[in-house]
Design brief:
The protein is α/β, with parallel strands linked by helices. It contains 23 helices and 26 strands. The radius of gyration is 31 Å and the shape is flat.
Length: 698
C-alpha cells in the first residue's frame, strides 16, 4: 500500500494520546466515530478507550491477526513522540499524522530531526508535526481538530492548520465541498510537493487548492505543480508577498526579480492559478467545479441593471476577456425579441421588467455567438427572483456553455440561490467576481492549449535537431572572480552570442584610433572593478564624433576611476533597447528575466520572469508580456525588429544558468534590437566563488 492510500484510505486508524474528557485524543476519536469511520483503536498507557473503541497501551499490544493499523494520529507530549514513532514503526504503521506542537516552530529543530530519523528507520511517513490533521470525505475519514466539511470535488492542502480549519468551516456557506483536506504543519517529512503528486492521480478530486507560506524546494514544487495543473486546476494562495526580507543585490535583474515576483512567475509557468485570498479561492473552486471549460474569450453580459453590468464589463476587459458588441444578425434577433427600451449592445440590459423567458431566450441566443455569459440580476424586494434564476438555469442546460450568475443585493436575491445551486450554476456576490472566475477558466484553457502546442513544437525541433539534449552539462566560468565587462563580452562572443563590435583601449591615442576605425559616432564606457553603476558617476559618454573628442572622453573617464581602460562601441540609432538577465532566487534557483532596457529598466519596471531554463515558446511568451512589446513591431515608420533573434538570446541565456552554475547574476542591458538582429551592448556578470560564497566586486 502506498503512503497516500494508507493516509487517505486506511484500514484501521490508531489515535495515540489521552482520551480523557477535553483531551485532543478524545476529540480525534469523536471526530472519527461521528464521521462514520468505525475501525479505530486508542493507544495510551492507561489502555483507556471510549464508546466501545478498543484500547491498547502500545502498538506492540495489538492482538495478532487484528486488522492492520495503517494510520496513526499522534497527540502526545512532544517529548514522547519519538518513542511513539518507534513503537508504531515496529508494528508496521505506514503513516503518522503528528498533531503535537513544540518542534521547529517553537525553536527546537533538532527534536524535529529526531522524529524524521526515527520514522525513516521503519519506512514510516510523517504529516506534521504541529498540524490539524487530515480529511477524506469519500472514506468517512475525519481525524482532524477542524470542522467536518461537506463532501465534494476539491482537495485543500494547507500549511496552516488554523487557516485550513477556517476554510473547512466556511465550506458549506460558500457552496464548496471537499474531497480531501491536509494540514501538514511544519512539513518535516511529507510536504506540499508530495501532496500535489498524490492528488494528481486522485480520481476523487477535480480541483486542488493549496495554501503555503514557504517552499522548501522551489524546482520540485514547480515540477509537481506543472504535472498536476496539466490534468486538473491548481489554485494557490501564498502569503508573504513583501520583498522586505529579500537580500540586496547589485544588478538590475536581481533588484527587480523580487521573491514574490519570482513565485508569481513560477506559478504562471506551471499553469497554476494564484488566488489573492480565501474569498477568491472559494470563487475559483466553485467556478472550476461547476462550470464547463471557457474555450474562448468572448463574454456576453445579460443584466437587468446597467451600473453593475458596466462594472463587470470593465473588470472583464482588464482580465483579458472581450465584451464585444453583438453581430448585426444577433442584434436584429434581440431587437425582435425585446422591448424597444432594452439595450441590445453588450451588456444587454433587459431592464427591471425582465422575465424568466427573457433571461432564458436571450442567454440561449447570445451563447450561440459568445464563449461564456454572465447573468446579472439586481432584484427589487417586490419581485420574486426564483423564476428569473430558473430562466438562467434553463439556458445553461440548453447550451452546455459556461454561464455564471450574480444575483445580487442580499435578501431580495435569496430565493434565487437554491435554484441556481440545484442547476449547477455558480452564483457570485458581484459581477466583477464572476468575471474574474470566467477569466481564470479562459486562462486555464489557453494554458492547456499552449502547453499541448509547445509539446508538439519542442518534440518536432528535437527530432529535427539531433544536437538538442535534455541534459545540460555544467562547467565553471573561466575567471577566479567577477570579470570586467570586456572580458565578459568576449566570453559571450566565443559562445556564439551576438555581441556589439567594440574596442577595449587603455590609452588616449588608442581611443582616437578606435574613433577613426569606427568612422561614426561612438559610445565610451569606463572599465573598472571599483565602479558599480557607471551612469551614476558619469562613466558613460555618448555621441562622441571625432578622435579629438575621444581623447577628451578618455581623459574624463580616467579621472573618475576608469582604472582598467575604456570600452568603445558604435552608437546605435533607432534600436529598441531590451534587458535580458539572470538572477538567483533562494527558492527556485536561476531565474531568467526579459524587460524594457536602457534607461527604461528601472523607471518602467517592465519585466517578465520565468524559472530557467525556458523553451523557445516560453521565451516568446515572455517577450509578448512586456508593456513595451509594441515597440518591437516598429513605430513611427521604423521597421519591425527581429523578434526571433531576441527569442534565441533569451533561450540561450536561460540555458547559461545551468551550463555555468557559478553564475550568480547576469545583466545584458541594453541589447539593441533592430530589423537586422540583436547586439548585446552592455554586460555585467557576478559569480559565486568556488566555495559558493558570493563575490562582491562587479
Amino acid at each position: 500500500m502506498s503512503w497516500a492510500n494508507a493516509l487517505f484510505r486506511p484500514r484501521c486508524v490508531a489515535v495515540v494520546g489521552s482520551v480523557s474528557e477535553g483531551k485532543i485524543g478524545r476529540v480525534l476519536i469523536d471526530q472519527l466515530l461521528h464521521g462514520g469511520f468505525s475501525d479505530v483503536v486508542a493507544v495510551n498507557p492507561k489502555r483507556q478507550g471510549i464508546d466501545g473503541v478498543r484500547a491498547v497501551s502500545s502498538f506492540g499490544d495489538l492482538p495478532v491477526g487484528s486488522r492492520p493499523v495503517d494510520l496513526a494520529v499522534v497527540a502526545t507530549p512532544a517529548a514522547t513522540v519519538v518513542d511513539v514513532l518507534e513503537d508504531a514503526g515496529r508494528a508496521g504503521v505506514q503513516v503518522a499524522v503528528i498533531i503535537t506542537a513544540g518542534f521547529a516552530e517553537a525553536g527546537h529543530p533538532a527534536a524535529e530531526d529526531r522524529l524524521v530519523r526515527a520514522a525513516s528507520q521503519h519506512g514510516l511517513r510523517l504529516i506534521g508535526p504541529n498540524c490539524a490533521g487530515i480529511v477524506n470525505t469519500k472514506w468517512n475519514l475525519f481525524p482532524t481538530l477542524e470542522t467536518r466539511p461537506p463532501s465534494g470535488d476539491v482537495a485543500f492542502v494547507s500549511q496552516s492548520g488554523a487557516l485550513g480549519g477556517a476554510v473547512l468551516s466556511w465550506a458549506e456557506e460558500q457552496g464548496v465541498g471537499f474531497s480531501k483536506f491536509v494540514s501538514y504543519g511544519n512539513g518535516a517529512d511529507l510536504t506540499d510537493v508530495d501532496f500535489l503528486e498524490a492528488l494528481r492521480e486522485d480520481e476523487e478530486t477535480r480541483v486542488v487548492a493549496l495554501y503555503i507560506e514557504t517552499i522548501s524546494d522551489g524546482r520540485a514544487f514547480l515540477r509537481a505543480a506543472a504535472d498536476l495543473a496539466a490534468v486538473k486546476p491548481l489554485i494557490v494562495i501564498k502569503s508573504g508577498r513583501s520583498d522586505s526580507g529579500s537580500r540586496a543585490t547589485l544588478s538590475h535583474t536581481g533588484s527587480m526579480a523580487g521573491a514574490d515576483a519570482v513565485f508569481d512567475a513560477a506559478l504562471r509557468q506551471s499553469g497554476a492559478i494564484r488566488a489573492a485570498g480565501i474569498e477568491e479561492m472559494f470563487d475559483l473552486c466553485r467556478g472550476f467545479t461547476m462550470l464547463p471549460a471557457v474555450e474562448g474569450r468572448r463574454l456576453a453580459i445579460v443584466t437587468n441593471s446597467g451600473g453593475p453590468a458596466v462594472l463587470a464589463a470593465d473588470r472583464a476587459e482588464t482580465s483579458g476577456l472581450r465584451v464585444d458588441p453583438p453581430t448585426d444578425g444577433l442584434r436584429d434577433r434581440l431587437k425582435d425579441r425585446l422591448e424597444p427600451f432594452c439595450s441590445t449592445g453588450n451588456p444587454i440590459d433587459l431592464t427591471v421588467q425582465a422575465t424568466k423567458d427573457d433571461y432564458r431566450d436571450v442567454l440561449i441566443d447570445v451563447l450561440d455567438e459568445y464563449d461564456a455569459a454572465l447573468a446579472l440580476n439586481v432584484n427589487t424586494p417586490y419581485l420574486d427572483s426564483a423564476p428569473l434564476a430558473c430562466g438562467v438555469a434553463e439556458a445553461a442546460r440548453a447550451t452546455g456553455k459556461p454561464v455564471a450568475a450574480s444575483f445580487m443585493a442580499g435578501v431580495p436575491a435569496r430565493a434565487a440561490l437554491p435554484v441556481l445551486r440545484a442547476a449547477g450554476v455558480p452564483n457570485f456576490a458581484t459581477g466583477e467576481r464572476a468575471v474574474q472566475v470566467l477569466a481564470a477558466l479562459a486562462q486555464r484553457a489557453t494554458c492547456l492549449a499552449l502547453a499541448k502546442a509547445e509539446r508538439v513544437s519542442e518534440a518536432t525541433i528535437a527530432s529535427a535537431d539531433s544536437t538538442m539534449q535534455p541534459h545540460i552539462s555544467s562547467r565553471l566560468l573561466p575567471w577566479e572572480g567577477n570579470p570586467l565587462e570586456p572580458e565578459a563580452m568576449e566570453w559571450l562572443e566565443t559562445l556564439g552570442f551576438p555581441v556589439i563590435e567594440r574596442r577595449w583601449v587603455r590609452a588616449a591615442d588608442e581611443a582616437a584610433t578606435a574613433a577613426r576605425t569606427f568612422g561614426r559616432s561612438i559610445a565610451m564606457k569606463a572599465v573598472s572593478r571599483s565602479i558599480l553603476h557607471k551612469t551614476d558617476v558619469g562613466g558613460v559618454i555618448l555621441d562622441v564624433s571625432s578622435p579629438d573628442e575621444a581623447i577628451g572622453g578618455f581623459e574624463r573617464l580616467r579621472a573618475i576611476g576608469a582604472d582598467d581602460g575604456v570600452l568603445i562601441t558604435p552608437m546605435f540609432r533607432h534600436a529598441v533597447e531590451i534587458l535580458v538577465g539572470l538572477s538567483t532566487d533562494l527558492q527556485f534557483g536561476p531565474v531568467i528575466a526579459v524587460g524594457s532596457g536602457g534607461i527604461l529598466t528601472e523607471t518602467m519596471r517592465d519585466l517578465s520572469l520565468r524559472v530557467a531554463p525556458v523553451s523557445r515558446t516560453e521565451a516568446r511568451r515572455m517577450i509578448d508580456e512586456l508593456h513595451g512589446r509594441p515597440l518591437l513591431d516598429g513605430t513611427r515608420g521604423l521597421p519591425p525588429c527581429d523578434v526571433d533573434a531576441l527569442t534565441d538570446v533569451v533561450v540561450r541565456v536561460s540555458r547559461l544558468a545551468l551550463e555555468y552554475p557559478d553564475i550568480r547574476e547576469l545583466d545584458l542591458n541594453p541589447i539593441f534590437c533592430t530589423e537586422g538582429g540583436c547586439a548585446i551592448a552592455d554586460v555585467r556578470l557576478l559569480r559565486f566563488s568556488q566555495d559558493n560564497q558570493e563575490e562582491d566586486s562587479p
